[in-house]
Amino acid sequence: MTEKERIEQEVQECVCEFMHVHDEIVDKVKKVMPQEQELLDLAEFFKVFGDSTRIKILYVLSQSEMCVCDIATLLQMGQSAISHQLRILKQMRLVNFRRDGKTVFYSLSDGHIQTILDQGMEHISE
Q1: What does the DSSP 8-state code read for residue 109?
Q2: CATH code for the domain in which residue 108 is found
Q3: What pTM, to 2 d.p., does this model score?
Q4: I want to staple 70 with a disulfide (CB 3.0 to 4.6 A). Which of 37, 66, 80, 102 is the partner?
């Protein structure tokens, strides 16, 4: 079987053999569907998790509060690269920061982020 044939077969497996809409189910789900903007915001939220550097940063912050120097050393990356990713994580409200003298420490913003990381790790380990 060629690659093209395999793809066509997979597409056919995902399509109903005849058109029959289950109106009750569609109506029930339609009533609880979030607004379009909420779904777009959710997609943006999950895009942040699509970058391996940001995932690494979130993971290390799930273990301990750290400053940029600590994170850069641990991940063997430059401080500017880490700072850039932390800015994105701050904008998406995934991390918090606090200043202690001249040092800025970062941590996960709340337990939800830890839960998302834990569930993701659990899912890929299955």
Answers
A1: S
A2: 1.10.10.10
A3: 0.80
A4: 66
Total structural domains in the chain? 1
**Local structure of 2: helix, strand or coil:** coil
The helix or strand, by DSSP H or E, that contains position 108, with its residue range, turns out to be strand 103-108
Quickly tell me which residue has 């700072």 as its tokens: 83
pLDDT at 116: 95
Contact by Cβ (8 Å): 83, 120? no
DSSP strands (E only) in 2-79: 66-67
In a domain, 65, yes or no: yes
Instruction: Answer yes or no: is 103 within a domain.
Output: yes
Half-sphere exposure of 123 (CA within 13 A, CB side): 6
Q: Give the burial class of 77: count Cβ atoms within 10 A of its Cβ; 0-12 exposed, 13-18 middle, 19 or more buried.
A: middle
Domain membership of residue 55 as a residue range = 35-125
